[in-house]
Amino acid sequence: MSFWRKLADFISLSPDPFECETGDCGPGHRVDDAQFAMALIGLGAKMAKADGHVTASEANAFAQVFRAPPNFQQPIARAFNLAKQTTLGFEGYARQIARRFRANPAVLEDVLDGLFHIARADGRLTRDELAYLARVADIFGFSDREFERIRLGHMGGESSDPYVVLGIDADIADADLKRAYRRIASQNHPDRLIARGAPPELQKLADEKMAAINAAYAKILTERRMAAGTA
Question: Furthest-apart CA pair in the chain: how many Å?
């Protein structure tokens, strides 16, 4: 089962995430499922708190990422409201998620995308929020270079270094350039995210990231005076 669908399934079938954490999980669920769900909810709520205060737009962005059916919104809101009081404990939540998906970095990048969506919901990304995101990325096992690639996918502009956007070295051979582009394009294609069951808001982010990847590749081709078909 995909990452986002597993979360939605857990939320939909569990009577209360807090009760499930203590062992009353309901049919088909285990305590570690509760810990998984609560780690995700806690990480998202503490992302909203990273700059010291939680705005309505950030709370709405959280609800978009961690979507639940109407009759299950109350326990999720309660979990969010408790977790958003402080950022303390976010590293522990990040480690739980990292352990769960260590062999699937694409899922961990999905989580970072969701956190970026929350952080940017109020129209700005503060230094504290960026530090929070960088620390989560580090716990997830992403290098500084990989985090910069992910960051530029959300925040980059015309002046972004296209090689950083693609996560490659500037002296990469022409033949390797094409392979690198195909790999990162495949990993970040919106269809892959849809297949993982991500909510529509993250699918929109995937479109933006894919556009940034394509723009970076096109810029490199132009700089090297290469045609797309020969790269």
Answer: 63
